[in-house]
Structure formats: C-alpha cells, structure tokens
Amino acid sequence: MTILETKGLKKIYGSGGNAVRAVDGIDLAVEEGEFLTIVGSSGSGKTTLLHMIGGLDRPTQGKVFIGQKDIYAMNGDHLAVFRRRRVGFVFQAYNLIPVLNVWENICLPLELDAKAVDHDFISDLMESLHVYDKRGVLPNQLSGGQQQRVAIARALSTRPSIVLADEPTGNLDSKSGLEVVNLLKQSVKKYHQTLVMITHNETLAQMADRVVRIEDGKIIGQGGAVCEPISE
Questions:
Q1: Is the predicted pLDDT of residue 230 greater than 50, yes or no?
Q2: pLDDT tens by residue, 114-163
Q3: How many Å apart are CA 94 and CA 199, to the nearest integer?
Q4: Which residues 6+ apart lie within 8 Å of 111 measured at CB?
Q5: pTM recorded for the entire structure
Q6: Could you give all domains of the chain from N- to C-terminal order, each with its CATH number?
Q7: CB count in 10 Å sphere of residue 189
Q8: What's the burial of 229, exposed, middle or buried (CB within 10 Å: 0-12/13-18/19+)?
Q9: Which pLDDT score, from 0 to 100, does residue 170 have?
Q10: Rounded to whole angstroms, how far apart are CA atoms 13 and 156?
C-alpha cells in the first residue's frame, strides 16, 4: 500500500529570470514499510524535497499525500499536529536538549503532545538502539554515534508512520555511520515504519530497498541495489 506520494511537486525560489527551481515537478510514491534513499549532489534539491514531504516547507506547486491525506490542504495548526504525530525526523545535527538527560530527550515529543509515556515501549526502543544504559546521562557525555541513536529514538518515540532522515550520518565517522544506519533500518522494520533517508554516501544508500537519484530538482534515476537511469 502506498503510504507517501507526491504529485507534480515544485519549489521555486525567486521569479522571472532569477527563478531557481529547487524541486521541479517530482512524482514519487513510497510503499508502506519501504526503506528508500534519496541521493544527489549538493544543491540537487533532495533536502528541499524531504522538507516538503515532511510538511516542513510548503511547495510552490503540487501535492503531498501521507496515508491518502493531502497534507497541504490543512491549515498550519492542523498540519503541525499531524506532522508531530505521523512523521519522525532525524537530522544531521542531533538537536538534543543539553539540560535534559537521554530519557527526557526521547520522551520530549510525547510530553509536548500531552501524551502519556509508554515506559515499556520507550525502554524497548532504547534497548533496540543500544542507549538504554545511557538513560540518565546528559548529551554532552555521549559520543556522536550515541547522540544520533538518541535522536533516532526520539523520532520513533511517537510511533510515527514515516521516518525522514536527512544525512543522519553526516557528522559521524564511517564505522559509526554504518552502525547508526543499520540500527535505524532494524528499528523501523521492527516497529513497522517507513523510512526515507537522504545521504551522500553511496554505500549507505545501497542498504535501502530502493534508491532514487535526483539532480536539478528532478528524478533522473531509481531502482534497487543499482540506481537505474530513467529512459527518455
């Protein structure tokens, strides 16, 4: 079943001769439970695409459907609630709150949404990501890989349908990056979620079920282990 779909998605900055088409008419469908990576050179539009998919940046034109719901037909307040409950975000910067310990950082999205914390689920999630033994530790006492694993646990804590990861290994060495992506992949599979990840790392990209390559705001290729070019 298709859980995420974009139709004619465009993001244009400026106008006339100065217009920049960051995303230029992308049609994309992602199946429930799929692990999809998006690759492309710097400035190709992949982060802009991810932000529009996740409801962080309204498109100039086109639509985004999550679970058959047109997310940009909602007003700002409704979209914010929908995004908080249905989409989990993992960024290159860990964005952990420095005065909160690991457990508190992970539970923060639930508390902001006035939801009860399921202690058994959060504990299981932390065990899966190998950070349960760090639950009382502050972020500055963790390695980069540990901080990113905490950020992943925070993204999964609300049990979102979709997890969007924007260069989640960008601040990590190759060994830590591989470990983080492996754990992220295992976690979303365990909790029956869909993962869309942006990466510059071709090795990490090939760990996905499908790779989509974009350049100049357009999809130029997609496929399985090897990203196939789109025929003209």
A1: no
A2: 999 999 999 999 999 999 999 999 999 999 999 999 999 999 999 999 99
A3: 16
A4: 117
A5: 0.90
A6: 35-51+83-223 (3.40.50.300)
A7: 12
A8: exposed
A9: 87
A10: 32
